[in-house]
Amino acid sequence: MDGLELDFTRFPFFFNTQQPEMLTELMVEARKRVDAAAARRGHPVRLGVRILSRPRIVRRLGFDLAAWRETRVADVVTVTNFWPCTDSDMPMEEWRELLGDEVELDAGLEIFVKASKDARQFLETPETCAGFASQYLHRGADRIYLFNHFFGYCGMNARAFENIDLDYSFTYDEPNMKRVLLECGRKETAYRQPRRHVVSYATFDEAPSPLPMPVDGSWRELRLNVGGGTAGREAFVVCGFEQAPPESLAVQVNGRPCAVLADSFDRPCGVDAEMARLCRLPEGALQDGFNTISFRLPDGTPNRLLWCEIFLP
């Protein structure tokens, strides 16, 4: 074998969070066995782990990351949400500082897209995969790790959205799965693709999720990382509300006003079409990395933002 992976996302709470040394001892023992296998087979055998997406969550669950780095127990660390969706703000920069440059750092993508815990979900598409991949490669991930993206049966096709509640009989769509595998693993190919950068949430995080977000007569803000390769790209904000927003809806990106269009958005998102608005960014407003998206309802009528993304067609 070439490697062994320990999946601590399925399930981290099987361990005693008050005894982090127990998890470290387990990793040290796994390292010894992997090294012994490498000696027997005459070639390197790598040890990988999957852990939850944010360092503060992992520490709270009893993982001693400093000890892992000191003992060099892992060759590959994949950070990922538990289920069902990809976390849209995994801090790869912080992970790199914690783990060092010797460890391969992978960003884990789940099979569903979901804005918040109680929101509706839909299957990943090549555009959402390209969005997440572009962001995390830009933020320092070495590789993109696809979890639950079963080859061919990934649902990456508009036909899969006919039943929005999903009965898990995924549409067979080998061409789009191949497209994801070939194009989302490297910056130079991922950046060029149509991309959907969707705001989602981290599972097991005690901090509140970005959405839903109250919107009223004052400016309310979200930050969203869109990765690199944005220069010269046409871009839109897609926002979805609990109630249909008034025509006076105001949207800005990095302080620059966006044009709220009459066009409908023809892709699945977390709200019904009549609750969503498509907003064109002015030329040069979008920047690589983090962007601030601001919303205001000038008439002051309270509403809630349920969905937000930046779309690069």
Output the helix-strand order. EHEHHEHEEEHEHHEEEEEEEEEE
The number of helical runs is 7
Average of per-residue pLDDT values: 91
Determine the N-to-C terminus distance.
41 Å
Radius of gyration: 21 Å
Helix and strand arrangement:
Layout lengths: L2 E5 L12 H22 L4 E7 L2 H6 L4 H7 L4 E5 L11 H8 L4 E6 L2 E3 L6 E3 L2 H13 L4 E4 L27 H10 L3 H4 L4 E4 L14 E3 L4 E6 L10 E6 L8 E4 L2 E2 L1 E2 L15 E5 L9 E7 L6 E10 L1
Parallel strand pairs: 1-2, 2-3, 3-4, 4-7
Antiparallel strand pairs: 5-6, 8-17, 9-17, 10-16, 11-15, 11-17, 12-13, 12-16, 14-15
Polypeptide structure, described:
With 313 residues, the chain is of the alpha+beta class. It has two domains: 196 residues, TIM Barrel; 100 residues, Jelly Rolls (Sandwich). Strands 8, 9, 11, 14, 15 and 17 form a six-stranded antiparallel sheet that branches. Strands 1-2-3-4-7 form a five-stranded parallel sheet.
Brief overview, please?
By secondary structure, this protein is of the alpha+beta class. It has helices spanning 20-41, 55-60, 65-71, 92-99, 126-138, 174-183, 187-190, and strands at 3-7, 46-52, 76-80, 104-109, 112-114, 121-123, 143-146, 195-198, 213-215, 220-225, 236-241, 250-253, 256-257, 259-260, 276-280, 290-296, 303-312. The chain is elongated.
Task: Based on the model shown, name its key terms.
single chain, 313 residues, alpha+beta, TIM Barrel, Jelly Rolls, 2 domains, six-stranded antiparallel β-sheet, five-stranded parallel β-sheet, 26% strand
